[in-house]
Every structure is written in C-alpha cells, then in structure tokens.
Amino acid sequence: MSTTSLLLQLIVILSTARVCGWVLRHVGQPSVVGEMAAGLMLGPVVMGALFPSLHAQLFSRESLQGLSSLSTVGLVLFMFVVGLELRASRGVREQLRAAGYVGVLSVVVPLALGIAISPVLYPTLAPAGVGFWPFALFMASALSITAFPVMARILKDRGMTRTPFGQLSLGAAAVVDVFAWILLAFVVALVGAGEGYQGLLKTTLGMAVVLCALFFGLKPAFAWLLRTKRPRANLRPPSWPR
Fold it and tell me: CB-side exposure of 152: number of CA atoms within 13 Å?
C-alpha cells in the first residue's frame, strides 16, 4: 500500500468523522456516535452499495491491513491516556471493591438474559455441530461485553473521566470486560476451535502475569522513582471537582 493511498484514506475518514460527530453533537448525542456512523457510511453497507467502484479503489483489500494497524495504534494511545487519568481518591482497595460490586451486578442481568433467550435462538442460529451450552454461553458473553473505548470516549468528551462517577464507570466496565472475555475464551475452548483448553489456560495465565507485573513490579518501581527523583516541591494529587 502506498503512502498516498493511506493519506487519502485518512483525509476522507477524518473529514467524514468530524462532520458526523459535529452533527450528532448538535442534536444532543456524543460525538463518538457520529464517528461510528461515519464508519458505516464509508463501509460496504452504504458507500460500497451506492458507489462500489469508488469504494473498491479507495478502500481496497490490500490497503486495509495498514489502516487497521494504524487504527490499533490510535486506540492503544487513547486508552493509555484514559489510564493516565484514572485516580483512586478513596484508596485503590476501596475503589476496586466498589467497581467490582458494580461490575458483577451489571453483568448478572445480561448473562441471565443471554442464557434465557438461547433456547429460542438455538434451533435457528446455532451452527451445525455446536452444542446448546457453548451457544448459550456465547450469547451470554456477547450481551455482557461492554464497548469500553466508546464509554471512555464519551466520558472524556464530557470531562467526566476524573470525577468519582467516571472513575467508577471505567473501573466497573473493566471488570465486566475481563470477565466477559474470559468467558468467551472458555466458550471457544468448549467448541474446540483454536487451541482448545490450552488457549483458555494461556489467556488466564497471561492476565495473571500482567496483573502481577503491574502491581508488584511497575507500581513499586514508579513509587520509588517518585520518592527519589521528583522535585523538592510539594506535589499534591489533583483535587476532585465537587
């Protein structure tokens, strides 16, 4: 893929997203909703159906790999910035406990609804060879997974990421996503696709290793750096808006 094609794609995508975000913002909706609508407009559903030749030239199959890699970098940087703004004003343990309670309670209802509706959907939607319980657990996990980046973007646009409500929302959504993705890995293992139960074990162990590295490695290291390398000025955490 040439640089010219990538730049042209970025110009079209950013322009359309800005216009759609501006329109949605002026009717009382978050800008990210308009940006998602821009993706639908530029995709095969709208642009591909109305202008197939133009869509094939602008978003050729060979160019999508580079665009996908660039979008992944942007998402990682955005979530990194959101993580930098997370604060534990009442203590990490208390905030994790509150987020855990909210996350667990918010995931119970969609899990139950997904399993409850599965007997009706299973005869018509389940692929051949897939048992009932893998299908039911997949429906439960699909209804439970949250759009974490979308919610973070909405909170950031409204200036709520550092408020107690925003902090609790982000923490609870993180708890829900961790649980739902582990459940989805378990469903994949039940179906027998991918690496089977080894994939589930690898996902669980990988998450445990990352958490241990963060809490027992990076956290003490950054605390030591702040104690030894920070200026002598009295640095205080930012005050919470009232």
Answer: 21
Neighbours of 85 (CB within 10 A): 15
Return the structure tokens found at 115: 């399993």
Q: State the amino acid at position 231 in one-letter form.
A: P
Two structure tokens written together for 112: 């139950």
pTM of the model as a whole: 0.61
**Token pair belonging to 39:** 């993706």
Q: How far apart are CA 173 and CA 81, in angstroms?
A: 17
Which residues have CB under 8 Å from 241's CB, separation 6+? 162, 163
Contact 30, 154 (CB under 8 A): yes
Residue 76 phi, psi (nearest 5)? -65, -45
User: Which tens digits make up the pLDDT trace of 140-178?
Assistant: 888 887 777 788 888 888 877 777 777 788 878 877 877
Answer for the pair 137, 117: CB distance below 8 angstroms, yes or no.
no
Q: Are the C-beta atoms of residues 160 and 166 closer than 8 Å to each other?
A: yes
